[in-house]
Amino acid sequence: KHGYPFGIVVNARGQRFFDEGLDFHSYTYAKYGRAVLDQPNLFAWQVFDQKTLHLLRDEYRIARCTKEKADTFEELVAKMEGVDPKGFLDTVREFNTAPRPDVPFNPNIHDGLRTSGLAIDKTNWAQKLDTPPYEAYGVTSGVTFTFGGLKVSNDTEVQDAAGSAIPGLCVDIGNHLPDHSAHDTLLEPGIGGWGDQTAGGLQEPRFLCGMNGASDWGVEAVGSSGGIDRQAGPGCGLFA
Question: What is the pLDDT of residue 205?
Fold first, then answer.
């Protein structure tokens, strides 16, 4: 969901946690997707008023979309699952009352319509949220594409440039495979790499490659000690 520069984004505490107007979405969606993973319960809500709804892309109108709508912020937050009402209402009040320069809103440029004095100021496109009904969209992070990652078959075999399996080389996807030992690494999609989830949370970006423990290949498993660090990995965005 890439329309966040024209609204605000809040976490489960009802608080903003990044500058939505820092830049156009093409330059911020990856790091802001990563920021969502640092929030409680790994989700956020994007909030808009009627002034900017026409700027939202079709991705906000798909059938499988977590969307709420209300005429007041009190009614809206009651529908925003997992969000602290007081925190949200305080955030909206502070955002709307923050000083702004007398410049016109322009979604096509860095318009300089910014707030001042907030813990995290919005540096462009900071119109007040004051035109109901208001809409909120629940989002989380997701892998959108890979940057220089490995191409893998449905059987987890690493493929060469021609699409053929490289004998004996596969991606270790942890306990999704037979004979997985407790100390091996469980791979989960992360931001800027594959999350190495060894202690109940995403750790350093890592792409773990090695000989798979599946009996179909008849080779020994390689745990995290046999992994290959890859700093370039899946891209990320904000998803419903």
Answer: 34
